[in-house]
Amino acid sequence: MVEAPHVAAVLRSFTASPSLWLQHLALGHPCCSPELLLRTGSGPDFQLRGLLLRHPRCPADILSDFSTHKNHRYRENVASNPNCPGSVLAGLARDAEQAVRAAVAANRSAPPAVLESLSRDSSPWVVAKTAANPATPPGTLARLVGDGNGAYWCSLAANPACPQVILIQLARSGSPDVQGRVAANPAAGTALLIWLLAGASGPHRPANETEVLQGTAGNPNCPGYLLTAFSRHPQAAVRRAVPRNPACGTVLLRVLASDTDALVREGVAQHPRTPVVVLSRLASDQAVGVRFGVARNRTTPSDLLERLAQDPDSRVRDALTDNPACPLPALTRLLTDPYRTVRLKTLLHPNCSAVPVRETALKICNSPAGKNIPAVLRDLAHHPGFPPHLKTMIACDKMRGLPC
């Protein structure tokens, strides 16, 4: 999400609030500045510290300081941070707690030498995390598959950076779980996918299990004629993978939009290629998950997003606050949403400018309910566009002990 000028001011106001909930909301935001992270996350609250240490903008020196903290949960947070220096990760790779080492093994910023070392760890969990890491050197991946230990094969098969030659070895394993992950791996070529579907010869059993069908249906390298066949498959689990395939075309999306399975329609609602006429129909779908998908889709037209701002389910309205394409009229309505989380997240939307906040605040004050300084008005006060004289009125009512 693009950082707008007002977002920093709203985050600053949230961190200055005595409410821990608002502070958590601020530190969980990707645009929270290092200054606010340090000021708010350096206190005694365990969860705030965790948010600080996991945040990508956490300063490297803070990560270094907490890498030796006695609480292993803090060390685990440091180990999972993508901004963590390689030297710190190298030290954490030798940590006594396997959860900390596993976090290092899953960190894409870990140096190759560190990942090579962790691939020989005594904990199978740590080794599996290393096998799944796209930053792990190809030579290390080749050694792991050559060890013959099937415990790591699923992790290797799911690694998007796994070389094709290793994926072919794994495809011959005969394990439906491993083959299913190979089929879903975007690094698997079209020929390998067809081979998996056709089944292997000799001692290997046919690879036509549901896992392989699902993986192939969702793979961007799946040929179009196979996607068409999968869209008609009797198993809903296979059809669900088709609209989640980035290569799925508009013709199939139109067909799948009428599927009896709600999860299939939900995949169509989220796809960037779904035609507007289909999105318009799905915006009125009975299933909440389908409407949720339309609300999150960045290609959904503004008029549909405005309509979804009136959706009876708060989850759909909340999804709009995460959509960068949400238009100003929809955001204006969400500023007075009955759910506080929706209102506060709306203030952090990049399109939520000062004008709708000011106009909404004045409109509330001119209504009969405005005399009681409702909760909506207090939430709007976190935005820099909120009228200054109304902030003074709120402060005075608090001093007099009036409900506000």
UniProtKB/TrEMBL annotation:
List the lineage, top down.
Bacteria, Bacillati, Bacillota, Clostridia, Thermoanaerobacterales
What is the recorded name of this protein?
Leucine rich repeat variant
Q: InterPro entries in the record, alphabetically?
A: ARM-like, ARM-type_fold, LRR_variant
What superkingdom does the record give? Bacteria
Q: Which organism is it from?
A: Desulforudis audaxviator (strain MP104C)
